[in-house]
Amino acid sequence: MRTVTFTSDNYIKLLNSGMEYFPELIVAFDQAQEEIWLETYIFALDETGEDIKAALERAAQRGIDVRLITDWVGTGSAVSKRLTRELAAAGAKHCSFNPWFKRGVVRTHRKMCVVDRKLAFLGGLNINNDFRSDDNPNVILPAPRWDFAVKIEGTLVAAIHREIEIQWARLHNTNLKARWQRFKSARASRIAATDTPALAALVIRDNLRNRRTIQRSYLQALGRARKSAWLANPYFAPGRKLRDALASAASRGVQVTLLLGVGQYRLQDAVAQSFYPKLLAAGVRIVEYRKTQLHGKVGVVDDDWATVGSSNYDGFSLFVNQEANIVVKDAGFAEALRRHIEDGINEGVEIRLEEFANTPWYRRAWYGFAYMLYKSVLRMLTWGRYVE
């Protein structure tokens, strides 16, 4: 398992929802001088997607090397074909990740972008309109989707660029010699951790050398927590290790608060609710966010550890899909992100143990059935390697 390597001298700007993220992305594309690499799970050709596509086309027409990777399931076959055709007409390149499940069930759920190897973006936002539902774009949300990304300048940009470049090479069956050269380059260019401010690390999950790296980063942060842990996620179905880490932190006096998205998938909600009694009994505070779709995957532990990324707290993100998070060790960044999480908590509905204990037996039975079904599916998809 690869260790998390922090680099110094990073300027990191937190971007709250698509209202801040997409304008920054378009400006970066319009100012690009050499290349644009973009990888995303969903690229919807709605109002937002058309704006982003137009910016990519403008860049390609100026002679910029534009390369786009989208997930075949997340984006859809028809839209993928249209992206390939329309971007090619402007001189840009597009490819789909794992069409027709040729590489098994794994998906790329990462949301990353690098411009001119100087500027990077990473987070939880897909390329789609903030007011349109993820699972049904015809459904208009009551408020913008709750989500975050970061804009990065500094030493970490090189690591993000390497990940997208390696992904592109993998999808285009680059020969083994070229892959080996990239691998050696990635190893040689790692920067040792320092004690200077603005430390940051790229934390990815794949099915090779980084299978549990993201989960491990959460476990280490929770294990070292002294005062507080503020965690927000839309799909809560972690394995036993992460659940135990949350309960253990709360039991030793750490203020652990979970802000969870609900209302999008009934089965997912039931799986999450099956974990509520033990977590609440251990002292974990659980708040459900019902104002709009909560899609952010963010966390702050104590005063100087924060993460933003694409990884959910479920078996698909932690054990199947390709994911990318950034971990930041900076007090100012952690404070800014914590304020956003606190705002979400203030808009949410807290779940209390005494109220949840009065849940009718048939609902508790449904929660248990949902969890057993979920666990069975994950074990099948991971060939028995998933440990609940």
From TrEMBL:
All residue ranges annotated as the PLD phosphodiesterase domain in the record: 104-131, 290-317
EC number per UniProt: 2.7.8.-
Chief site of localization: membrane
Any Pfam family the entry gives: PLDc_2
Record keywords: Cell membrane, Lipid biosynthesis, Lipid metabolism, Membrane, Phospholipid biosynthesis, Phospholipid metabolism, Transferase
Catalytic site positions: 109, 111, 116, 295, 297, 302
Highest taxon in the source lineage: Bacteria
SUPFAM superfamilies: Phospholipase D/nuclease
Catalysed reactions listed for this entry: 2 a 1,2-diacyl-sn-glycero-3-phospho-(1'-sn-glycerol) = a cardiolipin + glycerol
UniProt topology in membrane: Peripheral membrane protein
Location in or out of the cell: Cell membrane
Broadest EC class assigned to this enzyme: transferase
Function recorded in the entry: Catalyzes the phosphatidyl group transfer from one phosphatidylglycerol molecule to another to form cardiolipin (CL) (diphosphatidylglycerol) and glycerol.
Family under the similarity heading: Belongs to the phospholipase D family. Cardiolipin synthase subfamily. ClsB sub-subfamily.
Protein name: Cardiolipin synthase B
Organism: Keguizhuia sedimenti
Gene designation per UniProt: clsB
